[in-house]
Amino acid sequence: MGTYIHGYLEEEQKRLLEQAGFLNSLIYPWIDLSQSKNLLEIGSGVGGQTRILLEKFPELSITCVEIEARQLAQAKHNLSKFQDRNVELIQQDASQLQVDKKFDSAFICWVLEHISQPQNVLERIFSHLESGAIIYVTEVFNSSFQFFPKLQGLTEYYQAYNSFQIQHGGNPDIGLQLGNLLHQAGFEKIELITGGFHLDQSQPEKLKLMTDYWKSLMLSSAAEMVDSGIIENTLVKRMESDLDKLATDSKAVFFYQFIQAKAFKP
Ligand SMILES: C[S@@+](CC[C@H](N)C(=O)[O-])C[C@H]1O[C@@H](n2cnc3c(N)ncnc32)[C@H](O)[C@@H]1O
């Protein structure tokens, strides 16, 4: 299992909830769980995606599996308005998943990137699904990030950020491997799509929202990276100031792709 690089402070829990809302319109157009009744959500964090799933699919019951008790406590709070819905929160390491029932669907978003043995997790999920069940996975492809103009502070920080994740057992390009991983776990009818952002000064407000979001994402590992000695505080400041420059530069471009997979258990 990898070490979680974003930590569990209150500010980070708030960021996760906001992130789910911010990326909602990009992640969900492809996701259709209207035929599902019992969903297994892995790495549900503070319930940011769970909330959206419950709203979008009123018939859905959800079992959330999350390794960290502090996330589950916050998820309980964030999901309190859904008391009339069937939501179960379970504290467990997904690579040793053991739940006493089978599901007709599974959902994972921004989790496999943090896990050193993602294959185990997909195999455990597979064994908990009914035949014909559908799985949706959304994961990062960090090497796809391109920006213009080239700004040294952001470049160096981003390299360190990705190296830090690798050092902690994660994979910042796990999205590229989703097809292979699902295939090896036994899933069939695998489909992959890319989603993401390609922003410039033709949409300055969206660009500014994105650079602000990206700053909060980058900062979410800053304290851990500084504490571990991989970067100095000055680089954190340079990264922040470069993202501010990117928001206002007349030739700015911000490009990033994540990867989504859909597959079925035969
Ligand atoms: C980036 S957060 C994403 C949370 C949620 N899926 C979302 O999109 O808002 C990743 C979550 O996966 C959890 N996680 C990491 N490794 C795990 C494991 N082995 N089993 C279960 N949960 C895990 C972390 O504790 C964290 O809450």
Can you walk through the features of this model?
The protein is of the alpha/beta class and 266 residues long. The chain has one domain (10-264): Vaccinia Virus protein VP39 (Rossmann fold), CATH 3.40.50.150. 41% of the residues lie in helices and 23% in strands. The chain is built from 9 helices and 8 strands. It has helices spanning 10-27, 48-56, 69-78, 118-127, 152-167, 178-185, 204-219, 222-227, 233-248, and strands at 38-42, 61-66, 87-91, 103-109, 129-139, 146-148, 188-200, 253-264. Strands 1, 2, 3, 4, 5, 6, 7 and 8 form an 8-stranded mixed sheet that branches. The model has no long low-confidence stretch (mean pLDDT 95). The structure holds S-adenosylmethionine. S-adenosylmethionine binds at residues 1, 4, 6, 16, 20, 43-45, 48-49, 65-68, 71, 93-95, 109-111, 114-115.
Alpha-beta classification: alpha/beta
Examine the secondary-structure arrangement and name the CATH architecture. 3-Layer(aba) Sandwich
Small molecules held by this entry: S-adenosylmethionine
Overall structural domain count: 1
* Low-confidence runs: none
What is the rounded Rg? 18 Å
The string of secondary-structure elements, in order, is HEHEHEEHEEHHEHHHE
Please count the helical segments.
Answer: 9
CATH superfamily: Vaccinia Virus protein VP39
- According to CATH, what is the topology? Rossmann fold
Assembly of the depicted chains: single chain
Summarize the model shown.
The protein is of the alpha/beta class. It is built from 9 helices and 8 strands. The protein has a single domain, classed as Rossmann fold.
